[in-house]
């Protein structure tokens, strides 16, 4: 019998974050809205879309599957996602890097309050 990870499980959180990074890599990085022109996604939009693609279909499932990934990304960057994502100089490479770093650390079960990876230089 195959068991599927639950939304709060580090393996599931990591899968959502890796999928979100891949979505931004394929569709592009958007700002100021979850999904922009040509399907571009902001960080939050990519995480919600990834959770949906990984099986969260009802509102309660989406909420459960996105709360931890969103919180962990904010821990990684050290500030709320919208302002960080929407900064004029924010690049898709930076966004993908943060999502993948957070996914990797989460999967290794290493992301704690005492071990937060530094945001990029300049604190944008």
Written description of the protein model:
It is a single chain. Helix 1 (10-27) crosses helix 3 (59-77), helix 2 (43-53) packs across helix 3 and helix 3 packs across helix 5. This protein has helices spanning 10-27, 43-53, 59-77, 81-86, 92-107. The chain has 124 residues and is mainly α. It has one domain (10-107).
Helix segment count? 5
Q: How many E-type strands?
A: 0
Helix content: 55-70%
Note the gap between the termini: 46 Å
Note poorly predicted spans. 111-124
Largest sheet: none
Mean pLDDT: 82
Give the SSE order as H and E letters: HHHHH
List keywords for this structure.
124 residues, mainly alpha, 5 helices, globular, disordered C terminus
Write the layout of secondary structure elements.
Elements: H1 10-27, H2 43-53, H3 59-77, H4 81-86, H5 92-107
Helix pairs in contact: 1-2, 1-3, 1-5, 2-3, 3-5
Write a concise synopsis of the structure shown.
The chain is mainly α. It has 5 helices and no strands.
